[in-house]
Task: inverse folding
């Protein structure tokens, strides 16, 4: 998990767990990524069901 976080977010787990500001930044980015992926899925679904 730590390696995946480092690669995906550019932050290691130790820094993530010790710094609230960094944790909030990472979680905000995760939320944005999740919302974007949901928009993409909805768009593909919409196109398939025309």
Result:
């Amino acid at each position: 998990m730590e390696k995946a976080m480092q690669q995906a977010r550019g932050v290691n787990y130790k820094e993530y767990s010790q710094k609230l500001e960094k944790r909030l930044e990472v979680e905000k980015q995760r939320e944005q990524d999740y919302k974007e992926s949901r928009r993409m899925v909805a768009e593909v679904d919409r196109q398939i069901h025309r």
